[in-house]
Amino acid sequence: NDDLIAQMDNPQQWAIQTGDYKNQRYSQLDQITADNVGDLQVAWTFSTGVLRGHEGSPLVIGDMMYVHTPFPNIVYALDLANDGKIVWKYEPKQDPDVIPVMCCDTVNRGVAYADGKIFLHQADTKVVALDAKSGDVVWEVQNGDPAIGETNTATVLPIKDKVIVGISGGEFGVQGHVTAYNMETGEQEWRAYSVGTDDQLLVDPEATTHLGKPIGKDSSISTWEGDQWKIGGATTWGWYSADMDENLMYYGTANPSTWNPAQRPGDNRWSMTIMARDIDTGMARWFYQMTPHDEWDYDGINEMILTEQDIDGESRKLLTHFDRNGLGYTLDRVTGELLVAEKFDPAVNWTTGVDMDANSENYGRPAVVAQYSTEQNGEDVNSTGICPAALGSKDQQPAAYSPKTELMYVPTNHVCMDYEPFRVSYTAGQPYVGATLAMYPAPDSHGGMGNFIAWDNTDGSIKWSLPEQFSVWSGALATAGDIVFYGTLEGYLKAVHAETGEELYKFKTPSGIIGNVMTYEHGGKQYIGILSGVGGWAGIGLAAGLTNPNDGLGAVGGYAALSDYTALGGQLTVFAL
Ligand code: PQQ
Q1: Which of 412, 419, 417, 414 is nearest to 398 (CA)?
Q2: How confident is the model at residue 1 (pLDDT cuts 50, 70, 90)?
Q3: Which one of 29, 35, 160, 398 is separated from 548 by 20 to 30 angstroms, measured CA to CA?
């Protein structure tokens, strides 16, 4: 898509949620630097009028800024040339019955732009194309069915002549899928399921590979008992990246349903899998399953960051992924070859690491520590002290990459859990969870539940690590000014030095931050923008008013202290020198 590519290449704009197709979240803007960031001031603010968790970020295209909200998914177009005046507002009419079917707050990770249109994927899975100038509906299409637990929180990927969209509902036993719609008309072009028959998966059993070998016939359904795959989860609610030269798009699939592993024997392919697919046809080039037969809810949907770097003196096209399971993976994104798999939080204890011997029959599999299994001999067992907790060493909060430092800047969680699986039966549209969880800070952490780290993806090592009291649930931004920004659950926007991690600036916004930091230039001036509005899975206690420690799928107890620091409220804060 030439229009979008031109906008993304222009550092004055913030044209896509992920910064670019590579998901680097890096800006060339360098007015704000490590030397002057300490002088940052609030330039203007905007209340979204909505209270629950605010994920994602605004977009900036020319003089227009587009701001979205959680359910009911309002979109505002603000005129930056006229003091942020509201040019149009779009408020979809959605049935509030979708709210209880959303697992982890009513968040939305933002709108997308291409070809003069704004694309919104609502909570009720309606995909809407709006005229970017007027806000008029150009087309709309229903992607899923909330009555069976299909909902949406993700942004969409506009690419070439398509809009690529995912689905949520892993806690409701849906059959996860990714769908391409025609950007002009909204017509469906292809749909690829994560679990299912070869036809549904869009695979060629001989040509699609897993760690260099063909996946073979019935690669998914042969790893489930009976037709459990039909309610097998593996949703696609995360971030999407793309390599236009290879014509490939990348994303990860989520947990297999239910959370009780004893109820679904087998590797449960292709849940917990990194997928590389042809953009035009959806056909899969390669898969890599990170957590076969998941026992902990370590969804594999976190972003895939694409870079070109040297490994062992050879320049390679890389894909880096920080998984919920606590391992930072680096792969060759053309072939799917596994290059690095190392823990990015030292607390991770469920595995001793991944078998990297290409000749081993366990090649690419994590070795599971029996003590932290939630299943033994086919029976479910209670397990305590598992690190990380179900929300992972990192959840959806996206990392950033600076080509200047060649480091990844990663918002992380430092949380462990007790896991009690129980038998559950499937009823369409009802929770299909099958485990009770308790979450708490990792034992070595002196109470800190998060770290903001710098990671070298070429050898899998932590360069520096900044302890945070709560999980860092906000997305990072790296800039050519040698600074990295992130937000905290208490509500601070922080700027740190890209080389050393030294804290250079912090400002407390009105509510906890789970949004992603963005930057743009307008009228010759660089601005930093961040949405506050506490919520998401970590903030679900505040967002949904829950107090029982095991509620919110176990997060309420773990993050109870958040209410001592912040309260609900959706606000955009924009900073400048
Ligand atoms: N959403 C958040 C959030 O926005 O804070 C955190 C999570 C979700 C999770 O940790 C999940 O496991 C999760 N799982 C699904 C799913 O399996 O379909 C969906 C979502 C979602 O749509 O937000 C989350």
Answers
A1: 412
A2: confident
A3: 398
Is 79 catalytic? The answer is no
Residue ID of nearest Cα to ligand 1 atom 4 = 536
Please check whether residue 290 is in contact with residue 350, taking contact to mean a CB–CB distance below 8 angstroms: no
Residues with Cβ < 8 Å from 172, sequence gap 6 or more? 101, 103, 148, 149, 150, 257, 429, 430, 431, 432
User: Residue 258, SS3?
Assistant: coil
Of ligand 1's listed atoms, the one at least distance from the Cα of 235 is: 18
Half-sphere exposure of 104 (CA within 13 A, CB side): 24
Residue to mutate, 102, 396, 513, ligand 1, most ligand atoms under 8 Å from C-beta: 396
CB 296 within 8 A of CB 350: yes
Give the model's pLDDT for residue 444. Answer: 82
ipTM for the assembly: 0.99
What CA–CA distance (Å, rounded) separates 109 from 542? Answer: 19
Q: How confident is the model at residue 446 (pLDDT cuts 50, 70, 90)?
A: confident
Stretch 123-136: mean pLDDT: 98
105, 297, 345, 395: which is the annotated catalytic residue?
Answer: 297
Question: Hey, what are 28's tokens?
Answer: 């060339």
Does this model's pTM top 0.95? My answer is yes
CB 424 within 8 A of CB 263: yes
Give residue 222's pLDDT band: very low, low, confident or very high (50, 70, 90): very high
Classify the C-alpha dihedral 433-73-542-390 as positive or negative. positive
Distance 351 CA to ligand 1 centre (A): 23
Q: How far is the CA of 108 from the centre of ligand 1 (A)?
A: 11
